[in-house]
Every structure is written in structure tokens, then in C-alpha cells.
Design goal:
- The chain is mainly α.
- It contains 19 helices and no strands.
Length: 452
């Protein structure tokens, strides 16, 4: 295996710290969110706060991918961290749930830039034989936050109040920016100014998806139908132009890989995002326990990635299919959290299975998809991967949130609403197994030689 230079090692540290920051922010806020909605009477906006974050990701990842190709990675990274800090301040000082949602919007804009920047730098800065393990190291950045963020966030929420869950992340973000931005500055732009920016398309797509999922929360058909129709009219054409040809039919190759990623994030998110809410509403668990229940899934996700990275010669389609089977099994078993008599440690173990499946399929899809990137176009390709993820997360938060909003109006029980989210997870896993059979590796002509 090719030895890394000192600069490559410094860059690797910076990228891993950046992922750790995002992981800590996501895990900590997810732990505190049930308490936030309790205190601000914001159950109807629980799903919106999840969806708005990923919709903002959808816009910023496209912008960051373009800017990284045209201006180098350092500039979009610094802008992203600054936006994240502003979002943390807004949410931390929020007088109502609507302001929390506004803060989550800004946080999503900030963190959405991290993935395309990281993926493109792995592609540009590291030799080909090191890239699969680098993607694994990036995922390993979730391990420590997954262990400590729920405990820290739960303790802060119970001791000082949920606002400090947001505000305490600010100095961490500033420190990470100071460490990571410098090695990124060594990388000059690869792509010249060319064509029209895809940012307006990303805004249209995010707006359309947002209207669609928000419209589902309305209480009357007269409001639901126009929002859904207009949302689809905006989102579908924009996504068609942002994503590769064949995405809608999961065509063989790159398109199928991205569809698989969307199904994976729907399956994982429809379970992981709502287990803490079920632990709160069904079991009356404390914020610390709510976060602890989902720790196992993040840890075994990383374990699954290590396993897949150690077996680089297995056909990616087979590995991804196996991952979906394991992920779907874990999601199905985790739905037992809706039973009041079921022990939460049982849900913890069940979701460990789901996380393992997600880890098994995540690394092969990333590596295989990035092999399709032409030289100088790494930012665009990585943003398409992240966009496929964001579609899944957005639909998860929107559809699950709509179900919770219906329960908040008293139309169904909270258990029934959450059962719908777990059903969505199961359907996505089945579709993922089917789509995984269409995954193909990139033709050799598209795979560039390792960087010197």
C-alpha cells in the first residue's frame, strides 16, 4: 500500500475532524430534539426540523461541489463553518420552535458542504489504493461522537437546558476550522469557469421537496393537494437535471448506485431519526437514554465499513445487497420500540444490526460512485452522491414528520404514526435489494491513475 506524505496525513486529520464535528452536531441535536419540542410545544414541527436540515444540505452540497472545483476546497469549507456557527447561535437563542427550524436551516447549509469537499479531496489527494480506507476513516469520525455526544447532550440538556446543546458546539466548530482549513489551501482549483451554475436547480429541487413534504402535514385536502402538486412540479424537473440520466429508473451503473444510496438513507433515517422520539413518547425515557438507544447503530455502521473496506475485491453489487438485507432486518426488529413493555436495551441491540448493514453498503457505494468522476469533476460527482443521500434524508424527515403531525392533531396515535415511519424503512430496504443488482463498476477508461 502506498505510503502517505506528511501533508497527506495532515489533510487526513483535518478531514476526519470535520466529519467528527458534523457527527457530534447531528447526534447531539437529535438527542435534544424531543426535549426541545416538549418545551416549545413543537411536535408539529419535529419532522420539519429534520427535513429542513437535509433540504438545506441539498442546496449547499451543490454549491460547495461547484465552488470546490472552481475555487479550491478551502473557501467553501470556511464559508460552511461560518454558516454552521450562525445557525447554532440562532437555534440556541430561539424563542419558539419556528426559530429552531430557522437555525436548523442554517446548520444544514453549513454541514451540507462537508461531504462533497471531503469526497473530492480524497479523490484528488490520495493514491487509489488508499482511497477506500480513507472513506472508512472518514466514517470512523462518527465513532467518538456516537459514543459521547448523546451522553454529553443529554447531560447538558438536563443540567443546563437544551439551548446549551447548540451553543456548546460553537467553540468546537471554530477549532476544527482552524485545523482543517490550512491543509485544504494547498489544493488549487481544477475546473475552469464553465457552463451555467446548477445552484438555481438545487434551490428549485429543495423548494419542491420542501413543499411536497410540508404539504403532507396539512389538515385538509384543499391545502395538501396544491402543495404536493406544486412541490412535485418544481422538484422533479430540477432533480432530473441535477442527477445523472437514468436515476428515475435506476439504470445500470452510476444511476443505480445513487438510487441505492437514496434507499439506504430512507431506510436508515426512517428508523434512526424516530427511535429517540419513540423512546420519549412511548417509554418516557430521559434525554440521555433517548440518545443512548441509537448509539449502537452508529458504532456498527463504522464496523460494517471496516469489514467492507477489508474486502475490496468482492463485487460491489453483492456487498450492497447483503447490506440492505441486514439493514432492513435491523429496522424491522427496531420497530419493537413501539411496544411499551419492550426493553430499550433490546432496541439498542436491534439497531446495532441495522447500523452494521448500513456500514456494509455505504463504503462500496461511495468508492464505486467516485470511480465515475472525471478528472477535474470530482466536486460535481461527489455532490451528486451527497444529493442522493439528501433526497433520502429529506423524504424521511418529511414523511415521518407528517405522520407525527397527524398524530399531534389527534387523528392517530403517536404509536401509529411512528409505525408508519418504520414501514417506510422496510419498503426502502426491499427496494434497495432490488436496485443493488443493477450496480456496475466504472469502465476502466474512466478510472484515473493514482495521484503521485
Amino acid at each position: 500500500m502506498t505510503a502517505l506524505t506528511t501533508r497527506q496525513r495532515l489533510l487526513a486529520i483535518g478531514l476526519i475532524l470535520s466529519v467528527t464535528l458534523v457527527a457530534f452536531e447531528v447526534t447531539a441535536i437529535l438527542t435534544a430534539l424531543p426535549t426541545i419540542t416538549d418545551e416549545l410545544d413543537g411536535d408539529s414541527l419535529y419532522g420539519v426540523s429534520l427535513a429542513i436540515y437535509t433540504l438545506a444540505n441539498m442546496v449547499s452540497l451543490v454549491a460547495a461541489g461547484e465552488l470546490a472545483d472552481r475555487r479550491g476546497p478551502a473557501l467553501p469549507f470556511v464559508i460552511a463553518v461560518a454558516t454552521l456557527v450562525v445557525g447554532l447561535v440562532v437555534a440556541g437563542l430561539a424563542p419558539s420552535m419556528s426559530w429552531v427550524v430557522a437555525g436548523r436551516l442554517l446548520q444544514g447549509i453549513g454541514t451540507g458542504a462537508f461531504n462533497p469537499i471531503s469526497y473530492s479531496l480524497v479523490r484528488r489527494a490520495f493514491p487509489a489504493d488508499r482511497q477506500p480506507m480513507m472513506y472508512t476513516f472518514l466514517s470512523a469520525g462518527w465513532v467518538l461522537p456516537s459514543l459521547i455526544a448523546p451522553l454529553i447532550a443529554g447531560w447538558i440538556t438536563e443540567t443546563f437546558g437544551w439551548r446549551w446543546t447548540f451553543l456548546s458546539i460553537i467553540p468546537v466548530a471554530v477549532a476544527v476550522a482552524a485545523i482543517a482549513a490550512r491543509p485544504m489551501a494547498d489544493f488549487a482549483p481544477l475546473a475552469a469557469e464553465r457552463g451555467r451554475s446548477r445552484l438555481p436547480l438545487a434551490v428549485a429541487a429543495a423548494t419542491g421537496v420542501g413543499l411536497f413534504v410540508t404539504g403532507l402535514r396539512f389538515g385538509s385536502l384543499g391545502a395538501v393537494i396544491p402543495a404536493v402538486v406544486v412541490g412535485l412540479a418544481l422538484a422533479v424537473p430540477a432533480l432530473h437535471r441535477l442527477l445523472p440520466p437514468g436515476y428515475r429508473i435506476a439504470a445500470h451503473g452510476f444511476a443505480a448506485i445513487l438510487v441505492a444510496r437514496t434507499m439506504a438513507t430512507i431506510c436508515f433515517g426512517a428508523t434512526d431519526s424516530f427511535i429517540p422520539l419513540a423512546a420519549d413518547r412511548v417509554h418516557g425515557a430521559s434525554p440521555t437514554v433517548q440518545g443512548f438507544v441509537i448509539i449502537g447503530g452508529a458504532l456498527t455502521w463504522t464496523l460494517g465499513q471496516w469489514v467492507s473496506a477489508r474486502s475490496p475485491h468482492r463485487p460491489p453489487a453483492a456487498v450492497v445487497s447483503t447490506g440492505f438485507v441486514v439493514l432492513g432486518l435491523g429496522a424491522a426488529l427496531s420497530s419493537t420500540v413501539l411496544l411499551e413493555w419492550w426493553p430499550l436495551w433490546g432496541t439498542f441491540l436491534a439497531w446495532c444490526i441495522g447500523g452494521l448493514g448500513m456500514g456494509l453498503l455505504f463504503n462500496p457505494t461511495t468508492v464505486t460512485a467516485m470511480a465515475y468522476a472525471a478528472e477535474g469533476d470530482e466536486g460535481r460527482t461527489s455532490s451528486q452522491i451527497a444529493l442522493a443521500d439528501s433526497i433520502g434524508w429529506s423524504l424521511t424527515g418529511g414523511l415521518g414528520g407528517a405522520a407525527v403531525a397527524v398524530a399531534d392533531r389527534g387523528s392517530v396515535s403517536i404509536e401509529g404514526a411512528l409505525a408508519a415511519t418504520f414501514a417506510i424503512s422496510t419498503v426502502a430496504a426491499v427496494m434497495g435489494v432490488i436496485v443493488s443488482r443493477r450496480i456496475r463498476t466504472a469502465p476502466p477508461a474512466l478510472v484515473p491513475a493514482p495521484s503521485p
